[in-house]
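step: validate -> pass
step: tokenize input -> pass
step: predict -> running
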Amino acid sequence: MSVAKRILLIRHGEVADAYRGRFVGKTDPPLSEEGRAACRSLRERVAALAPAKFYCSPLLRAVETLEAVGGVRSETVFDPRLCEINFGKWENLLFDEIIHHADASPEQMRIWSEEPERFQFPGGESYGLFAQRIDSFMRDLYKTPYPTVAMVTHGGILMRVISVWKGVPPSRQWENLPPRGSLAVYDWKDGEAVYVE
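step: predict -> pass
step: emit ->
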């Protein structure tokens, strides 16, 4: 039988204006002041839920979010499996720039949209490997003894986690993208996750 667990999903706050609307993966920008403020507004809720352990992406925007919500670095596991996907040559581009990019063929765009599990960003990470590392992290998380844990990470990771929990295919994962600077709480037991708040 699985250990019952409450899992807090925290998406990092908004980043600086220069990166807004862009595909930011391995790039490491800081939070904007607006992003820090949104994350600080979560501090009381996070404290009330009292996670025994934080798991955080080592990228700066996640680390700054961790600090803003009241996480303690010395009690946090920084796991590279929680880093955002590497967009490769499309890193830091706007969607309009990608679809007009010389390397972006109509077939690439179709696969990205309709069959993302078959897609690899040019010069970057494949969705398959991305999903494998997230699923590996989650399997390890489920085995931890802590009753309440928090994940501080990126939109792509949280989309994957929530989509797996809901049985949503990768082609519809965008439906489960949490806003930046947000907190969602799920109870997980025996292979099922139930949304709490």
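step: describe -> The chain has a mean pLDDT of 94.
step: cleanup -> pass
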